[in-house]
Specification:
128 residues; 6 helices; two-stranded antiparallel ribbon; mainly alpha
Length: 128
């Protein structure tokens, strides 16, 4: 399958596909006209990668997961550990975002939002 076909099918950019090839996650075959052609194995890797990225895995984590995907002797405990670490990271991000939400709500409540220059939001940001 050609890169533009894969791009449309998986709803990712051709640039992203080229990047994944540059960093060694996938490999294309070059035709006589120098067009990239991807076999089913590499298309499956791209599908896997797209799903993993949607779950929040970084490219490094995706590379590791793809190596495990290709390894018939993999240990599920290793895969589980990667997923547990990602879950822990996401939970921390959620906590940080909730704290940020509380802070912004407080600032919005304190700001009168009128036509005068006094603004607690600006004052708070200026504190550094």
């Amino acid at each position: 399958m050609f890169i533009t076909e894969i791009s449309k099918k998986l709803k990712i950019t051709t640039r992203a596909i080229r990047h994944y090839e540059e960093i060694g996650i996938i490999r294309s075959k070059r035709l006589d006209n120098n067009y990239r052609y991807f076999d089913e194995v590499n298309i499956d890797k791209l599908k896997f990668l797209v799903r993993a990225r949607k779950l929040g895995f970084s490219l490094e984590e995706c590379k590791e997961l793809i190596l495990l995907f290709e390894n018939d002797n993999r240990r599920s405990e290793h895969v589980r550990e990667i997923a547990k670490n990602k879950l822990k990271s996401i939970k921390k991000q959620i906590t940080d975002l909730r704290d940020l939400e509380k802070s912004l709500k407080w600032l919005v409540l304190k700001c009168p939002g009128d036509n005068k220059p006094n603004c607690p939001i600006i004052d708070e940001l200026a504190k550094g």
